[in-house]
Amino acid sequence: MIQELSPINQKEAYARETRREHDTLLAHALGKPRYSRDMEEENPSAVWLHRLDAADMYDSFGFINHGELARVSAGEMMREEMAAERVAAANNAETRIEKELKRGNLRIADADLERSSEQFKIHLQPQKEYAADVFARLIQCLADDEELRALIPIFKASVAENPVRDDAGEPVPEVVLYTPSYEAMQKAVDKLQRYFAGWEARGSGDAPRFNWKVNDLMYVAQSGGDFKNALRKQGMLDAYYDENYNYAFRRGTGIYSREPIRVIRQSESFDELYAALDKLGGLTGSKRPYSSEELKVIIEGVRRGKLPLRGVTESGGLHDKVRDLLAEKNEAAG
Q1: At what angle do helices 292-303 and 318-333 cross, to 10 degrees?
Q2: How many helices (H) and strands (E) does the chain have?
Q3: What gap in Å lies between CA 75 and CA 132, rounded to an integer?
Q4: DSSP secondary structure letters along 180-231
Q5: What is the pLDDT of residues 244-271, one digit of tens each?
Q6: Structure pTM?
Q7: How far, CA to CA in Å, does 141 sit from each of 20, 200, 232?
Q8: How far apart are CA 193 and CA 322, in angstroms?
Q9: Which one of 74, 250, 308, 324 is most buried, counting C-beta atoms within 10 A?
Q10: CA pair distance 237, 244, nearest whole angstrom
């Protein structure tokens, strides 16, 4: 008589098998088994990847950046400036804030808030039937592209058999790629869009919580979902993150320029710009939010000479884009 596995044992067996498959894919892409200290000493210039502490749902990995380590050894940079350390510091800051919020302390330390804002994540959401293919493609791209490895020092992939949702019923990411800054995220997204060109249909289109959509396979977000959930429970989410972007990004128009997928900057005509604004649903300026319809009315007023260009908000690079499109139109007319 064949004894069937209990649901718990079946879940654990699937996770173990998925981790073994990950090891096989990593060995194939990197040309070696997973990391060990002895192997690093034998071949210090190789691409080394080590498995991080295992979680129930994820298989997590971190790259060893030899270039950064050499700079640390030479005194050219501090260890805490390394990309992986910066990612870890942002995670730790979020955890501290979450603990304080649970204690009822609603005053967030400025240093922790600033640190938590420095982390940007890229999420890949393949359909489960394509999860292994997407992971294999990702690993090969990371193995072949040294700059991409530096941009994404830590990543993790789900080992769950089926898509997972949180307590609120929102999708949990399948693959999480951690980057240490806005600029790193932008560069990594550009590369991944090229590497995964034509793969969009393999995405589930199921947006993770508090994310901004690049395409059906790829999403981006600033800071973590659990952290934002903690803010939302205290009624503080809108004070720090922008509803116009599904709370993916911090409010304000500083370094986090609120156009992480360049939907405004990529517009090559006013028609494309208006379509982009409709997709965004509007923008939040330095003093108040604007609906997409209001923004289009203002831009039309500028185009007709009835309103000054300074009336267009700088949020998301909109002011500069309208200026450039007007200049192109005047140049073509001349």
Answers
A1: 30
A2: 13, 9
A3: 41
A4: SSHHHHHHHHHHHHHHTTT-GGGB---PPTT-EESSSSEEEEES-HHHHHHH
A5: 778 888 875 443 444 444 678 788 999 9
A6: 0.73
A7: 20, 16, 36
A8: 26
A9: 250
A10: 12
